[in-house]
Amino acid sequence: xxxxxxxxxxxxxxxxxxxxxxxxxxxxxxxxxxxxxxxxxxxxxxxxxxxxxxxxxxxxxxxxxxxxxxxxxxxxxxxxxxxxxxxxxxxxxxxxxxxxxxxxxxxxxxxxxxxxxxxxxxxxxxxxxxxxxxxxxxxxxxxxxxxxxxxxxxxxxxxxxxxxxxxxxxxxxxxxxxxxxxxxxxxxxxxxxxxxxxxxxxxxxxxxxxxxxxxxxxxxxxxxxxxxxxxxxxxxxxxxxxxxxxxxxxxxxxxxxxxxxxxxxxxxxxxxxxxxxxxxxxxxxxxxxxxxxxxxxxxxxxxxxxxxxxxxxxxxxxxxxxxxx
Length: 325
Fold this sequence. Notes:
By secondary structure, the protein is α/β, with parallel strands linked by helices. The protein has helices at 20-31, 51-56, 77-87, 106-111, 158-166, 182-186, 199-208, 236-254, 269-276, 287-290, 296-324; strands spanning 10-16, 38-44, 64-69, 92-95, 101-102, 119-129, 135-138, 154-157, 178-181, 212-224.
């Protein structure tokens, strides 16, 4: 795509929460964009570290629209998203998560896509970054079925993306690597959706149903992986909630699939594997673990996965005991 004329205004929302360790670098990567037609909305969700102090150093920056600090934690990053989007005045929104990074040309490479009036979402290839800033490799989540698809730029209908990919797994996995039209988001009406952990998957599905999607194969976004990221494992209750939400969202997105599209249920087995991978002796006594919200073949596949994992655990322990003896 050709370079844009900077007529499209971008609202950058930085939802901050206890990421002081990474926040300075993140803000420098936001304010240092070579595309200059943007406003920044700084939001802190009652951080207990010195995140607010770092945000305040940018509160008077000419590109900063406002800075708001919650007195109580909202309980969900998606409530912060919505708060920022409601205040935004831009044509396009960028949710710049407070622990990620972007290249200086992130906005200029993606904003140009919105010169096409049909485009509602534009995103790029993301790289995984550890807490020390070392690049781990490309983020391949959701791209296992057809990895070659994401090796080139493409523009396609959002409906096709839903039918072939998004209905099975979230392929737009890191909000920091995505731009979307503000007016399309405001039409979604998903405020009451019973999801807190995987609501982005639901949002992208409904967004793509409204238009086209553009993908840039350049590595413009860096998604930081550490124990505090959303994708990191939580306690049992949190992981059960994540599983139930994933099942809810995949059922909701199936309602968006084009009439006549045949669903390949095997592509949902990643849910089974993800839950079965949590198997250990302590969980076997939990009814909610042994009877997850799966049906039919997925439930049987779960039991096979658990038995296989337990057998592997047994063999590993047996081998260690044998060598130890």
